[in-house]
Design goal:
It contains six helices and twelve strands. The protein has 326 residues and is an alpha+beta fold.
Length: 326
């Protein structure tokens, strides 16, 4: 994917870009606070998670005018070493008593501002490190999820980002973004791509029914950024729920393009979660190429191969005005 997940505010006109930080801070916590009392939706069975393993891959970005001498004068007297940032994050995960990615980022961001007065603002981003439950046999011959053993997952992962500033009246959560990334979906039929521009450069044949394979990142912003923290679970939008909406819409919608598909997913997300202000997407088209079709006279039976590079992508954002227009 080509997504730029780190979407912190750009400097105002006339201001310099100046920041530094640490990325790829992998940190894990056992027995974090469970996420409970999430409002359920028809498209998803998700109603919470145990958080027996809570893993994050974190990126820290610090801003502050007092860091200028480190660039212009080789004066490190105000510099918080990036190794210190890593250690600080590790320590604070043990102090966090919440249950969400965004909640921890907000918590540790405020702790950075409390600890180091030279920081004017901090941006923190994190990819959740997902784990799969593993089944173990029970005494009656059935299976149940192990409470002790997990598998590191290759599946999609939740994403969170916060931007916190220091102000005269305390620290403020200025911006937040939540998301789910690297969601990979394949639909064996029920998708087409037709009626596009045809000219002397066009070689792609129209397809009335194709096997569609996409990789998808979905991001959402709350009208009230505080809702992202999970302190009121019924106001929190879990990545698992957005994932499941994407699954359901992929199944329900006979789409004439990937653009059509992601628009329908966005409408459903905004419909289910009125606390959200906007939703955005980046999709990557990885659709397999048919090398044999209608095998044995059955039009649904095909042999397919990986697509050649380059691959197409789509970026799109939408807000509540799109829902109101329906």
């Amino acid at each position: 994917m080509t997504t730029n997940k780190y979407r912190s505010p750009e400097p105002e006109e006339g201001e310099r870009l100046m920041n530094y930080g640490k990325e790829k801070i992998a940190v894990y916590r056992t027995y974090a606070e469970p996420l409970e009392d999430v409002r359920t939706i028809p498209e998803s069975s998700f109603d919470g998670r145990e958080n027996t393993l809570f893993g994050l891959d974190i990126r820290v970005r610090l801003e502050g005018e007092e860091f200028l001498p480190s660039f212009s004068e080789a004066d490190n007297s105000m510099v918080v070493a990036t190794d210190t940032m890593k250690n600080f994050v590790h320590h604070e995960l043990g102090e966090y008593d919440g249950s969400t990615v965004e909640g921890f980022l907000d918590f540790v961001g405020r702790q950075f501002l409390d600890q180091y007065s030279q920081i004017d603002a901090v941006q923190l981003s994190a990819d959740e490190i997902p784990f799969d439950e593993l089944g173990v046999p029970t005494d009656d011959g059935d299976f149940e999820a192990s409470e002790l053993v997990f598998r590191v997952s290759e599946d999609e992962s939740g994403f969170g980002e916060v931007y916190i500033t220091r102000g005269d009246d305390g620290h403020a959560l200025e911006e937040q973004t939540s998301g789910i990334t690297d969601l990979q979906l394949v639909k064996v039929k029920g998708s087409s791509f037709t009626d596009y521009v045809q000219d002397e450069h066009t070689t792609l044949p129209e397809r009335e029914d194709r096997t569609l394979y996409i990789s998808l990142d979905i991001f959402w912003d709350y009208e009230n950024p505080e809702d992202a923290l999970g302190e009121e679970p019924e106001r929190y939008v879990a990545p698992e729920q957005v994932r499941d909406i994407a699954h359901v819409m992929f199944d329900e919608v006979y789409s004439n393009s990937i653009q059509d598909l992601i628009y329908q997913i966005g409408l459903r997300v905004l419909e289910r979660f009125p606390q959200l202000e906007s939703v955005s997407f980046e999709a990557n088209n990885r659709t397999w190429i048919a090398v044999r079709e209608e095998i044995g006279g059955d039009e649904d039976v095909r042999v397919l191969r990986e697509p050649d590079r380059p691959t197409g992508y789509q970026q799109f954002s939408m807000d509540r005005d799109d829902l109101d227009d329906q």
